[in-house]
């Protein structure tokens, strides 16, 4: 009964500030009077606080542009965690467009929606991402293409790394900065998560959002760490499969280090 009450209160609080912030964000998008990056960052930070998710960052985030942040993917919470950073935009699965609340904010945050299963659409999707990178928008790519259990990193898919090369055009002197980032779920209620508990916190497959949200609320305070790796310069002449492997290796190494510490 108490857990249900907490769930209802949390949903109510999020609903209370979400609609006004959506209106403000729409004004930002339509008028350009102020940055359209302010409201999404504020919403993500407020929602993390309501859910009892505490985020710690380790390492230095690159300020170079164009920039693509390449991360592992554990849960829908990853979007809030990285969205709480300064001025990032997401490369998201197309079905996220229809999610309640998160889907709307993803659209207002100017996410690029991709259909990974449609290979013929990949060149068009890559060009859209390339345009955003060229405009100076830091883009977040969950390179595994799906969610894992939080205990290991799945192989990175290299297809959308090609968008970084497209952003450079024919200019061989320019580079896109690929910044590896590891998202690590470390502790619940102040106690370190074991492999089974971390897997439970993860959001794998077609689990419904609301039951998983209740699980997250029951786990609070939930401690998450974001580790930034060494930036990887990616040029027109670079090999996307090679750069994908290098980013994957860095993320895997950072995840292992965080879990062992």
TrEMBL record:
Cross-referenced InterPro entries, in alphabetical order? Plipid/glycerol_acylTrfase
Cite the Phospholipid/glycerol acyltransferase domain residue spans from the record. Answer: 67-186
Respond yes or no to whether keyword Cytoplasm is given for this record.
Answer: no
Instruction: Indicate yes or no for the key word Nucleotide-binding.
Output: no
Compartments where found: Membrane
| CDD domains in the record | LPLAT_AGPAT-like
Q: Name one Pfam family in it.
A: Acyltransferase
Care to name a GO molecular-function term for this sequence? acyltransferase activity
Keyword terms, alphabetized = Acyltransferase, Lipid metabolism, Membrane, Transferase, Transmembrane, Transmembrane helix
Primary site of residence: membrane
Transmembrane domains' residue ranges: 6-24
Name of the molecule in the record? Lysophospholipid acyltransferase family protein
Organism of provenance:
Nitratireductor kimnyeongensis
């Amino acid at each position: 009964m108490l857990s249900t009450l907490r769930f209802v209160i949390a949903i109510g609080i999020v609903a209370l500030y979400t609609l006004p912030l959506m209106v403000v964000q729409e004004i930002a998008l339509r008028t350009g009077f102020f940055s359209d990056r302010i409201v999404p960052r504020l919403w993500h930070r407020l929602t993390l606080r309501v859910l009892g998710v505490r985020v710690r960052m380790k390492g230095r985030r690159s300020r170079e542009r164009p920039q693509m942040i390449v991360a592992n993917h554990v849960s829908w919470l990853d979007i809030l965690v990285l969205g709480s950073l300064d001025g990032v935009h997401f490369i998201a699965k197309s079905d996220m467009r229809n999610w309640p609340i998160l889907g709307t904010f993803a659209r207002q945050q100017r996410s690029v929606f991709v259909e990974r299963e449609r290979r013929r659409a990949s060149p068009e999707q890559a060009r859209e991402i390339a345009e955003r990178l060229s405009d100076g928008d830091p883009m977040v790519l969950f390179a595994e293409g799906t969610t894992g259990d939080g205990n290991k990193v799945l192989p990175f898919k290299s297809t959308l790394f090609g968008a970084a090369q497209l952003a450079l055009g024919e200019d061989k002197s320019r580079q896109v900065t690929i910044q590896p980032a590891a998202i690590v779920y470390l502790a619940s209620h102040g106690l370190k998560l074991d492999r089974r508990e971390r897997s439970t916190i993860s959001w794998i497959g077609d689990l419904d959002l609301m039951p998983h949200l209740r699980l997250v609320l029951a786990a609070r305070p939930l401690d998450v760490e974001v580790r930034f790796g060494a930036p990887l310069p990616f040029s027109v002449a670079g090999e996307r499969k090679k750069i994908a492997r290098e980013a994957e290796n860095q993320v895997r190494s950072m995840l292992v280090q965080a879990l062992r510490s």
